[in-house]
Amino acid sequence: MKILVTGGAGYIGSHTVQILKATNPDIVVVDNLSTGFKESIPEGIIFEQGDIRDFDFMVQVLKKHKIEAIIHFAAKLIVPESILQPIEYYDNNTSGVLTVTRACREAGVKYIIFSSTAAVYGDANADVQFVDENSKISPLNPYGWSKFMSEQIIKDCEKAFGLKSVCLRYFNVAGAAEDGKNGQKTKNATHLIKVASEAACGKKVGLNIFGTDYSTPDGTGVRDYIHVEDLADLHVLALKYLAAGNISDTFNCGYGRGYSVKEVIAAVEKVSQKKINVTNQARREGDAASLVANSTKIKEKFQWKPRRDNIEIICQTAYDWENR
């Protein structure tokens, strides 16, 4: 299968391309390099620089390379930024999906794997321990809404012209390649494990905890963290799932175990053997108290057995990457 990966020079995209390449080297990456890094694209992969919102460019790439499936990562993803810049998020994320799906229709692309988010659930399911794919949808921020709107566009496209899809709702993605060759290069990153690793390496003087009064065991936000390479594996399995003739569907991508902000900081301190300076701050707008996945569905449908389901492995690989 000839595969196009949008945002393939980014953090999750580049890890997925690396893993996908082992079994299917017929890959093309599209990225505008606004946040991605060309050097993150594995050697031997075809690269086309351009913007996913450019319809003519997208159609030209799809037809030129006879693309059969798209893995769509390209998106803006910082929650506080989305609150300050909602138009930019709807333009890049939702309008981007509109253009990509229009191009799929024009070029006859059969399949799309969509990078969605657990932010679509918001705080509406605070009374349940785990959220599943049928939990209430109620985003707290434009980022979450932009992704949920994109999911709906993709679903409507199947009814209209047969575009088969898998929407993967990521929980908190973290860590780096176990071989040490790739990791998160994002400048001014806001992801907790990334920032904590930077602090442990001395790149930052410390970090802020945003909210210590949530209704959680230690008062700080609780999240389900998934290693980036386990998530990459899920994209390969999603392609196989669609190619085998299965129906379009939506899946949570997490381990089903939540860790608080304080627990994550303690894990980074343990693997790095460094003390991290912490400052308590007020809650940030748009943050949920707790988001932990019920991942039963994806484990059963994909026969997925995560290989890195351990917070210390996630933190160790992230810290080692920063340290290098």
Structure characterization notes:
With 324 residues, this protein is of the alpha/beta class. The chain has two domains: 3-171 and 225-253, NAD(P)-binding Rossmann-like Domain (Rossmann fold, 3-Layer(aba) Sandwich); 174-223 and 256-323, Alpha-Beta Complex (UDP-galactose 4-epimerase, domain 1). The two termini are 36 Å apart. The protein has helices at 11-21, 55-64, 79-84, 86-107, 142-161, 192-200, 228-243, 261-272, 296-302, 311-323, and strands at residues 3-6, 27-31, 46-49, 69-72, 111-117, 164-170, 172-174, 207-210, 222-227, 249-253, 258-260, 278-281, 290-291. Helix 2 (55-64) packs parallel to helix 4 (86-107), helix 4 packs parallel to helix 5 and helix 8 (261-272) crosses helix 10 (311-323). Strands 3-2-1-4-5-6-10 form a seven-stranded parallel β-sheet, sandwiched between helices. Strands 7, 9, 11 and 13 form a four-stranded mixed β-sheet that branches. A two-stranded parallel ribbon has the order 8-12. Strand 5 (111-117), helix 5 (142-161) and strand 6 form a beta-alpha-beta unit.
CATH topology of the largest domain: Rossmann fold
User: pLDDT under 50 segments (min length 5)?
Assistant: none
How many helical elements?
10
What order do the helices and strands follow? EHEEHEHHEHEEHEEHEEHEEHH
N-to-C terminal Cα separation, in Å? 36 Å
Biggest beta-sheet profile: 7 strands, parallel
Domain unit count: 2
Helix residue percentage = 25-40%
Return the average pLDDT rounded to an integer: 96
**What's the architecture of the largest domain, going by CATH?**
3-Layer(aba) Sandwich
What radius of gyration results from the CA coordinates?
19 Å
The class by helix and strand makeup works out as alpha/beta
What is the subunit organization of this protein?
A: single chain
Fourth-tier CATH superfamily name of the largest domain: NAD(P)-binding Rossmann-like Domain
Which strand order spans the largest sheet, edge to edge or round the barrel?
3-2-1-4-5-6-10
> Can you count the beta strands?
13
| CATH class placement of the largest domain | Alpha Beta
* Strand residues, percent: 15-25%
The shape is: globular
